[in-house]
Write a structure and sequence with these properties.
With about 650 residues, the chain is an alpha+beta fold. Among the domains are: about 70-180, PAS domain (Beta-Lactamase); about 310-480, no CATH class; about 485-630, Heat Shock Protein 90 (2-Layer Sandwich), CATH 3.30.565.10. About 55% of the residues lie in helices and about 20% in strands. The strands form four sheets. Strands 6, 7, 8, 9, 10, 11 and 12 form a seven-stranded antiparallel β-sheet that branches. Strands 2-1-5-4-3 form a five-stranded antiparallel β-sheet. A hairpin with a 2-residue loop joins strand 11 (about 240) and strand 12. Helix 8 (about 385-400) packs antiparallel against helix 9 and helix 15 runs antiparallel to helix 17 (about 600-610).
């Protein structure tokens, strides 16, 4: 399965961190400034609405101020003294022209009859009901009259000099179309609402429509006009005389949020300008960080392929990676030294093995010579009753070294069975001697020798090689046993000895036996480490041989009551109780002749006793065997 390199993974990881930080900062900035922008949009809309309301109010207020000032002019006094002539109409026309009024001026007398106007052909018109008021000034909002085309707004003021009754009315009109031009939609659309009403006139590009405009205007975040969403705000109430109004401003949502979109673009651009160089820097630093590790990995692979422990990791700097490289170089140096020592020891073992093989060959030759001598002497001994004692002696000696010679002689028939044959042979010999027929006697004796000697010696000669090999194994075991007191006491971790032994035995069990370990003995143990390793070797080798096909070996270590306890259990064939009782006896073995010496577990038992400990065995036939070693953590001197 393919995988990313370490530098790529580090680059992706730190790039993700940079992206996360950049995104977080952008989000914080966006929400902070976005909230301020929304507030500013609302303030701008309110400002636009207030501006429109102020603009309309200024226009109306300007007309009101002029109207009140004209009321006090000398011309208007003519109405009071009934000095009615064309001078009033002329003055009204001049005022309209001079002030560029959008509407007309009207003067009504006390009876409500129109007596002067800038609009022609309307004299004698009765004062409209909408213009009738008892106040000094009144603003009559949008309305229609029969003698005026279109909707108008009217300013009405009473002509009432001090201490006199009302003498009439002075009225100024203003075309509603002129007011509506001020509310014509551009970037925003506007609505005009009387403060006392719940509806308003909305000025859209397609015309004017009436909408519902409740007092709780701010509770509605969005407004839907012509299938488009708008943000809205309303001005503060504006009062002119007894009339009060408000202007609502609406801006398309997409247009209002253009600053937010611009902010988003700027944030993305800033994130790109910051993030891309940061990711490039992260990639460079990742490669810079991983390069020493890659060098270390490459060196390890090179050593693995070439088995050359003299290869060193190139180290530069004084950081943790450099420390790791130096530690690795020191380790390979020590391993090289140990490997060289191992080669020397291996050579010594080879020389020793050759020496022992030569000794075994010499000893085998001696045994063959001895057997040949026995063969020569047998013909003579068989003719004597001393053959019995000699056969028993050879059987006893062979039995002591556990070789097949004793079995042969031990199974020979008693000499008494040959007495009759011997007596017959003697009688036959006497007759031959009397007849002086020596040739006949010689032939008879040869037949007897062949029958008696040949069959038994064949078995003896066929088993000599097995006897020699077993003697060699016994010599090796005794040699190891003789070295038990030659080691030095050390403080070591027993787990290391177990692992080392498993490594040496690995070729005998790989791919068929599973090793399961539970090492709980943390504390080191004072012991003769080499001898304990010999115990581990004997027990583990037996456990491996006890598993015929596939199985498991379980190894545990623990500290119990100031003792180190090692358990080695296998799932092998196990052993019956009669074998278990003799398992630690010298020369006892359940293996075939030539396959074991019967000394391994006996020597192991002696080593554990030397360590003031115990070696016990638990076994069940066809279920497996478990050896338990218990030794003190510290040896008691002169115990």
């Amino acid at each position: 399965m393919s995988r990313f390199s370490l530098s790529v993974r580090l680059t992706l990881f730190f790039s993700f961190i940079v992206l996360l930080v950049t995104t977080t900062l952008s989000a914080v900035v966006f929400y902070q400034f976005g909230d301020k922008i929304n507030q500013q949009i609302e303030r701008n809309l309110t400002s636009i609405a207030d501006h429109k309301a102020t603009e309309i109010n200024n226009a109306l207020l300007f007309e009101r101020t002029n109207l009140l000032s004209w009321r006090a002019s000398s011309v208007m006094l003519d109405v009071v003294v009934d000095d009615l002539d064309k001078r009033i109409t002329t003055e009204l026309i001049n005022l309209k022209k001079s002030y560029q009024l959008q509407g007309d001026l009207y003067v009504f007398n006390a009876e409500g009859v129109l007596i002067a106007s800038t609009q022609p052909d309307v004299l004698k018109t009765q004062l409209p009901k909408a213009w009738q008021t008892q106040q000094d000034y009144a603003l009559v909002f949008k309305h229609e009259l029969p003698f005026i085309k279109g909707s108008v707004i009217a300013h009405v003021t009473a002509l009432k000099p001090a201490q006199l009754k009302m003498q009439g009315y002075l009225v100024m009109t203003h075309s509603w179309e002129d007011i509506s031009r001020l509310l014509a939609p551009k970037d925003s659309i506007f609505a005009f609402r009387k403060t006392t009403e719940a509806t308003a006139e909305l000025f859209t590009p397609t015309g004017v429509e009436t909408i519902s405009l409740e007092k709780d205007f701010a509770t509605q975040p969005l407004w839907l006009f012509d299938h488009s969403s708008y943000l809205g705000s309303i001005s503060t109430p504006v009062t002119l005389g007894d009339f009060s109004f408000q202007i609502a401003a609406f801006m398309p949502e997409n247009l209002a949020h253009e600053p937010l979109l611009e902010l988003t673009k700027n944030l993305l651009l800033a994130a790109a300008l910051v993030g891309i160089p940061m990711m490039a820097l992260v990639s460079f630093l990742s490669r810079l960080l991983v390069t020493p590790i890659k060098k270390l990995t490459t060196t390890i692979h090179t050593i693995e392929d070439s088995n050359d422990l003299s290869i060193k990791v190139p180290v530069s700097g004084h950081d943790e990676v450099a420390d790791l490289g130096n530690a690795f170089n020191r380790m390979t140096t020590r391993l090289g030294e140990l490997f060289n020592k191992f080669i020397v020891v291996e050579k010594e073992l080879e020389d020793l093995n050759l020496s022992l093989e030569r000794q075994v060959i010499d000893r085998t030759a001696q045994l063959q010579d001895t057997l040949q001598k026995l063969k020569s002497a047998q013909t003579q001994l068989v003719q004597s009753e001393k053959m019995v004692s000699l056969g028993q002696l050879v059987a006893g000696i062979a039995h002591e070294i556990n070789n097949p010679i004793g079995a042969i002689y031990a199974n020979m028939p008693p000499l008494e069975e040959y007495i009759d044959d011997i007596k017959g042979t003697v009688a036959f010999a006497q007759s031959c001697m009397e007849e002086q027929d020596t040739q006949k006697l010689t032939k008879h004796m040869e037949e007897i020798d062949y029958t008696f000697v040949t069959e038994d010696l064949a078995k003896l000669l066929n088993s000599q090689k097995q006897a020699a090999e077993r003697i060699r194994n016994i010599v090796l075991s005794l040699r190891n046993f003789s070295r038990l007191d030659q080691g030095e006491m050390k403080t070591v971790r027993l787990e290391e000895g177990l692992d080392s032994t498993l490594q040496m035995l690995y070729h005998t069990y790989k791919d068929r036996i599973t090793i399961e370990k539970d090492y709980a003995l943390i504390e080191p143990v004072e012991c003769y480490a080499g001898e304990l390793n010999q115990v581990f070797m004997n027990i583990l080798a037996n456990a491996i041989q006890a598993i015929p096909d596939k199985g498991s070996i379980f190894i545990t270590t623990a500290k119990i009551n100031d003792q180190a306890v090692i358990s080695i259990a296998d799932t092998g064939t196990g052993m019956p109780d009669e074998v278990k009782k003799k398992i630690f006896d010298p020369f006892f073995t359940t293996k075939d002749v030539g396959e074991g010496t019967g000394l391994g577990l006996s020597i192991s038992y002696g080593i554990i006793e030397k360590h003031q400990g115990s070696l016990t065995v638990e076994s069940e036939l066809n279920r497996g065997t478990r050896f338990i070693i218990a030794i003190p953590l510290r040896l008691i001197k002169d115990a």
